[in-house]
Amino acid sequence: MNWAVCFWQSVWMPSLGELLNCSFVMVDKPQGPSSHEVAAWVRKLLGAKKTGHAGTLDPNVSGVLPVAVGKATRLLRYIASHDKKYVCLMRTGKELSEKEVGELFSRFTGEITQTPPKMSAVRKAPRKRKVYYIKPLEIMSKKVLFEVHCEAGTYVRVLVSDFAKLTSGASMLELRRTSVGRIGESACHTLQQISDAMWLAKEKRDESEIKRILIPAVEALSLPRIVMRDSAVEAVCAGSPLYAPGVSSFDEGISDGAKVALTTEKGELVGVGSASLSGKDAPLKGAVAFPETIVMERGTYKRMW
After folding, report:
1. Annotated catalytic residue 58
2. Is the pLDDT of residue 273 over 90?
3. Rounded to two decimals, what is the model's pTM?
4. Which of 38, 107, 128, 199 has its CA 20 to 30 A from that of 148?
5. Would you call 188 helix, strand, or coil by DSSP?
């Protein structure tokens, strides 16, 4: 059988109710409240049953905070594992030249070892993390503005503490997260914007703005997709592996063991699974994907077995 490669384009237009049941909103978190408080405020603003956030930001840190709505909270781990970018303003103990700053940053680029700070909610044990780059943006007397691109779970506050040990002291003045994976600042919305959009939906019956703000989970995940035939959907919802006859199409370049979004032919998200593909030129046979997290309700599609 000649399997078509999927260049996926949604034909499914979710209703507001469906979005409130399973979606993401990218919040531009302000300084002051905790990430948990922001997620709770989003829940109240939307009137949702449940919300949760991916990648905790300290109260005094601003920036990109993905908040899951409804059943999308089951998918938070797939977003939390994405790499992050930050912009940090640091004060140094003495004036540093551009060369000295570059040499300092290069020592902490690549694989580094960090111990999470006391205030973090994770185990306080040394662990390896990857820093893709640290780029100086501006050097002003004893202040250095720089950008960091790093693996999930890297603490910029700890990086600055490590910088301090190699210079005449250093402290973090301000920190902002500018992206989570492919999600950048331009995709984010303030709490006021979310509130205004819900007011329009409730009072003016204009749902266009809140629908623009709420992102279907399949789009927010940014995972390669395997599209299922309708006949396979209910079986996968029941926990069955996805077998070759149930595949309609799939994205190019999916590697064996990769996390994939399992979708219907309409574009609805069924869940996330682990791919079992032999290679792009090998014929599909046997189990093609094993479901890990299912968000579609049983009975949404007809049982075919």
Report:
1. yes
2. yes
3. 0.90
4. 38
5. coil
